[in-house]
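ok so i was messing around last nite and threw this chain in just to see what happens. nothing serious, just curious
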Amino acid sequence: MRLALRLAKRGAGRVSPNPLVGAVVVKDGRIVGRGYHHAYGEAHAEVVALRDAGEAAQGATLYVNLEPCNHTGHTPPCTRAILKAGIRRVVIGMRDPNPVAAGGVETLRAGGVEVTVGVLEERCRQLNAAFIHFVTHKTPYVVMKIAATLDGKTATKTGNSRWITGERARRLVHRLRGTLDAVMVGIGTVLRDDPELTCRLRRPPHQPLRIVIDTRLRIPESSRLIETLDTAPLLVVTGPKVDEEKRARMISRGVEILSLPLYNNGVDLKRLMAILAIRPVASVLMEGGARLNASALRAGIVRKVMIFYAPKILGGQEGLSMIGDPSPESLGEAIPVREGRIRRIGEDFLFEGELDVPERRSVS
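result:
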């Protein structure tokens, strides 16, 4: 199962909105086949592994991190391929949370296959956290990424933030951009940093959809986001009242403009997430800044936080903070973070945790 999980990771950035799945065929204590889901619309991991095993699959055991699908989508049911190959036993990491594809366990057992479920289940769930959230909640899995000093500052009072974290942390962020479906920032970040928001790995799995929350369409037409449209798509989310001539010019250059009604003077992020889910965008990496972070937390759309802490102390009270909200009056208003864990990334420290955030206040 550990090998199946390692294989599954190879599909990151290529299979969404499908899950990451790896499969291993074992016979007489020897691996005779292995495979993973390479790309959306292509053969599933089980089928790839069975093809690799060939005739050796007869009477063998199949290990797979997710319950084999039991429906016809872009490809036929994996349960059919497993039964046809003569697999004797199937070991499954976790059940499929997608009701459309579920039922594989019952079909296999009805076909005389011995089935074991729940091996390394927690690791299997962690691997496909975005997929699980997307199919159960019908909204994207939003990861809030922040880079800060030890005293919680994301930039100096002049807005300088390059670079708070080290090279290895920045490389990890590029890997995240290459594996999640979209990356989202506020217009303040664009005006301050003029980012590209592309995945700049040597061989990126894919380029994310770049999303800018820009209520009044203030994005400069000379920005690097627009200059790199041939590399990655760009979606600018505005309010209903913008400069129509500028809007037309940007659309003519290939920028997608989405105008939404304002909610409390800002973009309704919950409504935006519902629209993105239809595309489908299953996961979003949110890279700030402070006002967007605050709005996202208030809207209850954030499911995971990743805070990179650099071993630096900026000091002072005028530097930019992580969250651009007025300070609450009591600790009871704090948002709890569960399953927190810390690891070292080069010279920096990464804190990761999960949120179950109800909508508490209006979006701004």
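not much to say yet. DSSP finds twelve helices and 18 strands in the chain.
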